[in-house]
Amino acid sequence: MFSIQGISEKMLGPTTPPQVTYGLTEFGQDVAEPLTDLFDRITRRLPPDRRPPRDG
Q1: pLDDT tens sequence across 16-28
Q2: How many domains does the chain contain in total?
Q3: Domain assignment of residue 29, given as a range
Q4: Which of 9, 11, 28, 52 is the most interior residue, by most CB within 10 Å?
């Protein structure tokens, strides 16, 4: 769904079986930071036991 909207892209490597790699498009990178900030603001308001785990 996101690749259709230009947020992510799917790249196929020339291997057998094909190596599939996903990444953000330039547009996806532009919107990632404000969305992460919004997510952080929302989760800070949740009680600690209700907060989702975060990577990194």
Answers
A1: 999 999 999 999 9
A2: 1
A3: 8-46
A4: 28
To the question of pTM greater than 0.70 for the whole model, the response is: no
CA dist 18 and 7 (Å) reads: 22
Q: Is 11:20 a contact under the CB 8 Å cutoff?
A: yes
Identity at 19, one-letter amino acid code: Q
List helix spans (H) across the chain: 26-44
Give dist(CA 1, CA 39) in Å, integer.
Answer: 20
Residue 26 lies in a domain: yes
- For residue range 22-54, list pLDDT tens digits in order: 999 999 999 999 999 999 999 999 988 888 887
User: Is 53 part of any domain?
Assistant: no
**What does the alpha-carbon distance between residue 1 and residue 45 come to, in Å, rounded to a whole number?**
29
